[in-house]
Design a protein that fits this description.
single chain, about 110 residues, mainly alpha
C-alpha cells in the first residue's frame, strides 16, 4: 500500500467515524429533546408541587397547634374532673356523717 492510498483510506475511515458519531449524536438529541411545551408543563408541575408542599407544611403546623390545644384542654378537664370527684367524695362523706349524726340524735 502506497503512502497516498494509506492517506485516502485513513481519511475515509475518519470520515465514516465522524459521520457515525454525528448521526448517533443527532439520533440521541432527537429522542431526548424536550419540547418547549414539556418544559412549561414541568415548570407548572414543579410550581404545583411546591404549593402542595407548602400547604402540607401549613396543615402539619395547624394540626400540631390544634393537638397541643386539645391536649391542654384535656389536661384541664381531667384536673377539673379530679377536683369535682374529690368534692363529691367529700360531700358524700359529709352527708354520711350528717345521717349518722341525725340517726344518733333522733329519739326512738
Amino acid at each position: 500500500m502506497s503512502r497516498t492510498e494509506f492517506i485516502i483510506a485513513t481519511a475515509i475511515v475518519l470520515f465514516v467515524a465522524f459521520s457515525l458519531g454525528w448521526f448517533a449524536n443527532w439520533l440521541l438529541h432527537r429522542f431526548t429533546r424536550v419540547a418547549a411545551g414539556d418544559v412549561a408543563e414541568l415548570d407548572r408541575m414543579s410550581q404545583e408541587l411546591h404549593e402542595a408542599e407548602e400547604t402540607r407544611d401549613q396543615a402539619i403546623t395547624y394540626l400540631q397547634q390544634r393537638e397541643a390545644e386539645l391536649t391542654n384542654q384535656l389536661s384541664q378537664t381531667e384536673a377539673e374532673l379530679r377536683a369535682a370527684m374529690d368534692g363529691l367524695r367529700d360531700a358524700r362523706h359529709e352527708a354520711e356523717e350528717m345521717r349518722a349524726y341525725i340517726e344518733r340524735e333522733q329519739p326512738d
